[in-house]
Amino acid sequence: MNGGMNEKYIVMTEKELFIQKMKARTKRFALDIIAFCSQLPKNNVGYRIGDQLLRSGTSVGANYRASCRARSQAEFYSKISIVVEEGDESGFWLELLIESNQMGTDEAHRLLKEANEITSVMATPAHFQSALKHSTC
């Protein structure tokens, strides 16, 4: 409105920006895991590990989102702990696929790196302390 008084500005805090970025990042990770799992070999190993990876990889985003709706600090901590566990588990399944030569593609390595990064960020004590000080997400 030409700089008028009625213009609305949305100002996000650093915490709100972090939350939005992590919601988008964990959702993107889940979508990438879905696409990756659909490309796994159609054999017993591909089906078994693919199912485990699909469950853990999509759980990362779902539980991060749930942590942002937590009703208490205990519930928040519980959900973030699940994000860390599922991210680490996703990394494990990706490592198995790579090291067993079932799927050693660049995409597998990229997803492993992303799983490790998300896990590290969520497991950082500073992340927990900041969130606990300012209630939940």
Based on the model shown, name its key terms.
single chain; mainly alpha; de novo design (two linked rop proteins)
If you had to describe this structure to a student in words, what would you say it looks like?
With 137 residues, the chain is mainly alpha-helical. The chain has a domain at 42-133: de novo design (two linked rop proteins) (Up-down Bundle). The protein is built from five helices and no strands. Helix 1 packs antiparallel against helix 4 and helix 2 runs antiparallel to helix 3. The longest helix is centred in the middle third of the chain and has 27 residues, at 73-99. It starts with 13 loop residues before the first helix and ends with a helix. 29% of the residues are buried. The model has no long low-confidence stretch (mean pLDDT 88).
Question: Please, what is the average pLDDT?
Answer: 88
What CATH architecture label of the domain at 42-133 applies?
A: Up-down Bundle
**Helix-and-strand structural type:** mainly alpha
> Major sheet: size, sense and barrel closure?
none
CATH superfamily of the domain at 42-133: 23S rRNA-intervening sequence
Specify the CATH class of the domain at 42-133. Mainly Alpha
Give unreliable regions as ranges: none
CA distance, first residue to last residue: 33 Å
**Number of beta-strand segments:** 0
Query: What form results from the Cα inertia axes?
Result: elongated
Order of helices and strands: HHHHH
**In CATH terms, what is the fold-level topology of the domain at 42-133?**
de novo design (two linked rop proteins)
Query: What is the helix tally?
Result: 5
Report the sheet-strand fraction: under 5%
Q: Cα-atom Rg, whole angstroms? A: 18 Å
